[in-house]
Amino acid sequence: MRSVAARVRRGVLQSLRRFHPDRDLVLAEFDARFYLAAHPDVARAGVDPIEHFLVSGWREGRDPNRDFSVKEYLEANPDVAAAGMNPFVHYLRAGRAEGRKPRQDLGFRYEILSELKTVEERVAAAAKASSAVTVAPAADLARALAKSRTGLGQVHLTFSHDDYSAHLGGVQLCLRREAAAVEAAGRDHLHIFPARPWPVLRAGEPAPLGVLWNGRAVGTYSAAAIAEALAGVKGASFAIHSMLGHSAEETLAILSAAGLKRGFFWLHDFASLCAGFHLLRDDVEDCAAPPPDSAACGICVYGPWRARHLAEHGKLFEALELTVVSPSQPTLDLWKAAAPHKAAAEVVLPHARLIERGPAPAGEGPLRIGFPGVPAAHKGWPVFQALAQAFADDARYEFHLFGAQRPAGALVAFHPVSADGPEPGGMTRAVAAAGIDVALVWPLCRETFSFTAHEAVAAGAAVVTNPDSGNVAAFVAGGGHGLVLTGESALAKAFETGDILQLARRVRRPALYDLEYSALTMDLIEAGA
Q1: How do residues 270-325 score in pLDDT, each as one tens digit?
Q2: In sequence order, which residues have a C-beta less than 8 Å from that of residue 281 and are 6 or more positions away?
Q3: Is there a domain that residue 431 lies in?
Q4: Of 105, 130, 158, at which residue does a domain stop?
Q5: How many CB atoms lie within 10 A of CB 420?
Q6: Which of the two residues, 470 and 104, has the higher pLDDT score?
Q7: CB distance 185 to 522 below 8 Å
Q8: Residue 192 in contact with residue 253, Cβ under 8 Å?
Q9: How would residue 404 be classed by pLDDT, with cut points 50, 70 and 90?
Q10: What pLDDT was estimated at residue 420?
Q11: Which letter does DSSP use for residue 168 in this model?
C-alpha cells in the first residue's frame, strides 16, 4: 500500500510540475536531446527533461542547450545569482534584451586559469593529509621482507608517485609490466611511494611512505624504517620512475642501506626539470623548459618551485650512477638540452612497438572520430568536446569516447574501456570494433610517450595531433600515421572543409597491428645495460 501511495503522490507531483509557470517561456529554446545526452541519469530516470531543468537541473549547474552556460551566466551576472533566479529564465525574459551573453566564450584555458591553485596551497594540503597517516615500526617491514623469494639475494627497488597496484595511468601500467617481469625472473620487488599524493618533491617536509612487497601492500613507514629493514639485502637493483612526493636525501639513504649506487632513472615526465612536470605554463601552454631565470618562469605558478626540483634531482645525479631511460627520442633530446644533470648513460626504450598483422576493414558510413583515454583538459578533451558539439548535426561525422568513465556533459557515443583488464589491448580492440577512422590525440603538453596513440594506430585509426604533443607528433609524422595540424583553428577548418575525410579507412586502406610491450627496466637489466 505504501508503495502504491508513493507512486500516486509522485504521479500527482509530476503532473503539477508540468504546469511550471516558466515552461512555455523556455520550451522553444530548450534542447531536450542535448539535455538527456549530457545527463544520462535524467534519461535513466525517465523524467520530463524540461521539468527536471526547471525544478532542479539549473540549481545543479546543468545547461539547457549547447549555447547557454548556467555556471558562466551566473558568474558574469552576480545580480541574477544573488536573486536566486533561474539564469536561463532570466536570460530569455530580460537578459538577452539587455545585451547579456548566454556564455562567456573565453575557452577552457580561461576556466583552467580561473581555478588554478598555487603550488603553496597544494603543498599545504599534501602536508596536512600526510600528517594524518600512522606509520608502522621497521620491525613490521622486516617481518614482511622475510617472506622473500630469494632470501633477499635479488631485490629490485622501484620508486614512483603512487601505489601502481591501486591506481590507473601510464606510469602505473609501466610499473605493472615491470613488476610482472620481476616476478617472472624469480626476483623480489619492493616498491616505495608517498602514502599521500604530493605535487612536488619534498625538501624537508616530513611524510610517510607506502610499501608494496612483491605486489602486496605491507604498510606505511618512515624512510628511516625502510632503510633499516633493507640493511639485510644482499643483492639488488633499482629504478626511479618518479620522485614526486619523495625526498632526495631519504631516497639516497634507502639506496645506501641496500648497497646501491648504480641504477635507472625514467623520463615518464619532466619533473626532473620543473615542478610543472608537464612543462605547461600555468597548466595551459607548452613552455619547452626555458632557462630557469627566464621571464617565462617568472610569470608561471611553477616558476618559484623549479629551483627545488632541479636541486633535489641534482643531488641524485651527483651521488648515484644513473642511466637515464627515455621512452622516446624527442623526450631525451629535450631533457638533454634543458637538464643540468649529468647521467652516467642514456638509452631510448619505447614502451611498445607496432608489429603489422594485416589490412584493416575498409569501413563505410560517416567518418568516425574517437577520443581514446582520460577525458582531461591537458589531454585535449575540451578540444574534442568542442569539435563534437560544433559538428553534432553534421551527417559526415560521428564522435566516440573510449575510457573508463563517461564524464558529465559528454555528448558523444561512449565505449567503456578499462586499462585494468586481465589482458592488454582493450583500447585497441574497442577502437577497432567501433571502426574508428580518426583518433584525436591532442594533448596540450609534450607527451613522453603515448599508449593511446599507439593503440589507436594498432586498431587501424589515423591519429590527428598538434605540434606541441611531443612524441605523439614525432610518432605520427615519422610513421605516416595521420596528421600533425598547426592548431585548433586548423583542426576546425579540416572538419568544415571536409579535408579530414581523406583519413577515412576506405581512403587510406590502413593496416592493423599488434603491440609488443616492453618489460621496462627488466629489459635493460637482462641486456646488461
Answers
A1: 999 999 999 999 999 999 999 999 999 999 999 999 999 999 999 999 999 999 99
A2: 287, 296, 299, 300, 302
A3: yes
A4: 105
A5: 11
A6: 470
A7: yes
A8: no
A9: confident
A10: 60
A11: -
DSSP H helical ranges for 258-323: 295-298, 303-319
- The reply to whether 47 and 127 lie within a common domain is no
**What tens digit of pLDDT does each residue of 160-180 get?**
999 999 988 889 999 999 999
Residue 401 and residue 371 in contact, taking contact as beta carbons nearer than 8 Å: yes
d(CA 379, CA 387): 15
Question: Reading across the β-sheet that carries 345-348, which strands appear in turn?
Answer: 216-221, 209-213, 188-194, 155-159, 236-240, 262-266, 321-326, 345-348
Query: pLDDT for 20-32, tens place per residue?
Result: 788 889 998 999 9
- Regarding whether 360 and 498 lie in a shared domain, the answer is yes
CA dihedral 126, 127, 129, 132 (to 10 degrees): 160
**Cα angle 129, 133, 135; round to 5:** 150
Question: Is 110 among the domain residues?
Answer: no
Bridge-based pairing of strands 345-348 and 262-266 is unpaired
Dihedral pair phi/psi, residue 464, rounded to 5°: -110, 130
Residue 76 within a domain: yes
Cell matching residue 168? 590507473
Q: Which domain, by its residues, includes 62? A: 2-105
Between strands 155-159 and 236-240, the pairing is: parallel
Q: Which residue has the cell 583542426?
A: 491
CA distances from 405 to 309, 370, 417 (A): 33, 15, 8
Closest to 512 measured CA to CA, from 365, 378, 355? 355
Three cell numbers at 316?
Answer: 641524485
In a domain, 457, yes or no: yes
pTM to 2 decimals?
A: 0.85
3-state class (DSSP) for residue 365: coil
Instruction: Report whether pLDDT(5) > 60.
Output: no
**Percentage above 70 pLDDT, the chain:** 95
- CA dist., res. 117 & res. 126, Å (int): 13
Instruction: Provide the pLDDT confidence category of residue 18 given band limits of 50, 70 and 90.
Output: low
Backbone φ/ψ region at 99: left (φ over 0), alpha (ψ -120 to 50), beta: left
3-state SS, residue 488: helix
Domain count, the chain: 3
Q: How far apart are CA 38 and CA 407, in angstroms?
A: 9
> What would the grid cell of residue 142 be?
622486516
